[in-house]
Amino acid sequence: MALLEVDDLKTYFKTREGEVHAVDGVSFSLERGKTLGIVGESGCGKSVTALSIMGLVPGPGRVVSGSVVFDGRSMLDRKQRELEDIRGRDIGMIFQDPMTSLNPTLTIGTQITETLRRHLKLNRDAARKRATELLEEVHIPNAAGRLDDYPHRYSGGMRQRVMIAIALACNPKLLIADEPTTALDVTVQAGVLDLLRELRAEHDMAMVIITHDMGVVAETADDIVVMYAGQIVEHATTLDLFDTPEHPYTEALLAALPQLEGENVREGRLVSIPGRPPDLLAPPLACRFAPRCQYAGHDDCAGVLPALREIRPGHWVRSAHPASERAAHAVGAR
Amino acid sequence: MVADRRAEFEASLIRTAETRGQEAGAALQRASLLRDAVHRFSRNRAAATAAFAFLVLIGFVFITPMVVSASPYDINFENAYLSPSWAHPFGTDEFGRDLFVRTALGGRVSVEIGFAATIAIMFVGIVYGAISGFAGGWLDNALMRFLDALYGLPYLPFAIITLAIFGTPSFWPMVVALTVASWFTTARVMRGQIITLKENDYVRAAHALGARWYRVLFRHLLPNTLGVIIVFVFLELPGVVLGEAFLSFLGLGISPPKASWGTLAQDGYSSYQSHPYIIIVPSLAIAWLILSAFFIADGLRDALDPRTRSY
Amino acid sequence: MLKFIVRRVVWTVPVILLVILMTFVMMRQIKGNPFQVTERAVPPSIQRNLDRKYHLDKPWYIQYAYYVKGVATFDLGPSLVQRNQTVNDVIKEHFPVSLKLGLFAMIWAVLLGIPLGVFSALKQNSIFDYAAMGFVNSGYALPNFLISTLLIYFFAVKWRGVTGFPTNGFEGWHAWILPALALGHAPMTVFARIVRGSMLETLQQDYIRTAKAKGLRWRRVVGVHVLRNSMIPAVTAAAPLLGFLIAGSFIVEFIFGIPGIGRYFVNSITGRDYSVTMGITVMLSVIIIVANLVVDVLYGYLDPRTRDARA
Q1: Model ipTM value
Q2: From CA B27, how far away is CA C35, in angstroms rounded?
Q3: Which residues of A touch C213 (CB under 8 A)?
């Protein structure tokens, strides 16, 4: 049985202008010890999906339907108190901006030990010892001495490592990393990703990594889910996705990656996807990618919302014109 | 210093300056920003209601005496201490004078003093702050240190001392007394504004084009602080009106027969245990002014930069 | 941290000197003769003697020097009107009363204001929130004298039988309750509003989301993470409130017949008792300056970022 099973999750936000369908029918499952990558542009609903799993969707948003089953039990109909037990202990989460994700008025030590004391019931000294070990695990130099420092004494990369230490403190079965490297510069990024890889193996932890960076996901994920406008448009193993992407959006994402080798590299222009994502305020029941898709327009495919179908074993796609079918039906670009 | 911390309250206004500074520049842009702000303001129900209430008060204060026939100076002991009725909507005082008209006239005085003092505060504060911020360097430092010292002056005692210097309390002495210890915050905020705006690229561009300092100051910097200034007007006005009321209540206010809300309250004080409405009416008028001005200031602050809004 | 404190303390000395200077200069502008007890003018020879005794014949900077020396040795000079009393006597007699009143008022303000703010923020937009904020906002606008008189009217007059509060006279612990409430009301509203706003802002912060994601009990999230960061603006607000409190105390002491420093101040000004006026003003200034210092230090303790950032 999978560690995490999400089925037709829908999370909407009530606003003055109406309801925003931030997550509109997302399903996936994750096995123990595996890593799932969720990619997509800003606003496609990847973060909200993660927050929905944790029960941390802010204020005007709420999960309207669907199910989330973690370790055999449903998450959505739990009381807050039960969720509080699971969070931090069985599921850890790290966020995008390390500069603001730590409380500036508490020492790093306190912020680590409070988790330990809360979930593992350690006393003060044991908690401090464990906290020092955790800092060492994430390669913070002079860990014992830095325990009583305040966050502003740490650099961005170090703070993110602290966040990881906190998330892993109680040996959770699942780690959700929401854009863990986006706010860091490239060299620091590499260090953090290496660290995640190392810890994952050591703790045999499942991970969901959310990012808009295809490079990051290629390195860390076993399976990838591509989201667009609140829905999953493609789901495959990493190898399969990069080898034979099916959805026009995925293809465009991959094409947009700057190339260092290949023909015409010096003369060509950077490829970008024209247009913008649709407004998720009561979206129409139609193909959401159509306005930006280069294969739409020859037939009525734009007016119909395609279902997510398994085009190959283990490879799902939500498109009327996935790549492998285009050759067969000779659909050309617009 | 605490003065810095205090400035954090007004930091929301300074953030406004940053966004304004980055967006503004050409006069054309400014006009549409103003329209934007007006639009946002009118959509804010609390602020629009407050603005309406404020105008109603101003209208009451200025128009009523011209329209109503009852004279505020008619002493008629037979009519003393009448309760509110149709003929005398607010009742009468111990001399039989109609309170409705007296409150309106008193309001005129209070509001006039209030606006005069507020404008004086703005003027002093803006000049001081602008010089300090614009000059920078040692002058800025010195001026700010001096300002920090001024914060140590207790407001009311100094107002009272100022009044004593003038001898008899009439309009202008009162205005000066109220201004003397109230302009510090404005100066500080203005300085903060100017400093933030100074760093903007369009100012550098102006310099690069050879603009002289006064052109930069008057054409570029000051107009972009207008929004903040207007907000501050509505923030300072209540304080000043309340200050005048306090001074009058203590017996240091405008001499009769002219009255202000404060002196009316003082009159009412002598008989509040038997006829409380005499003190209640002018107090409520003051409260009305304070509340409406405050919500207008709030609304203006939101209208100028919705990002600083707290939900 | 220690360096920070020392620097701040050292700074207060020139500030106090400056404040004394300004007060001194202003006081000299007040016309009047403290020795003139009756309508008749004081005989010139007596005037000269009195002038010489109180150094009033020396140039102003000499007088200033004498005065500063006096302040340094805690000798604020003799009362010019009440010949057998020194200013220190006056202060010793009346200041403790005002101090107690101020303290009680602040305690009330904190005890009611902060919880109101906290719970309003936690239950944002609920009926409790609206009711509490309505109460707070209206309380803020109503002038001190109205609140005082209303309190007396209801609690001491109308419902006398129930509460047993006296209407005037100042005996027993009963007598402190109403004045403390009246004086503390405005500060209470300020605290409530600031705490609420600050908490709302803190609740939005990323680190609160992290705390929740760690699975901490909501009790702890609020008690440790939210409150600690929200209290900082409230602390900062405390110092300016002192000015509020001083001004308010003048009114409250007047109405409740409390023999405090505020009442004495007004009397000394009208009586042209320069030294008493100076003495009280200087003392109040020193209190304000020291209070600002304390708040600054407290702020440094509460917000670790400022400790290191301080140059």
Answers
A1: 0.84
A2: 63
A3: 54, 56, 87-88, 92-93, 95, 167
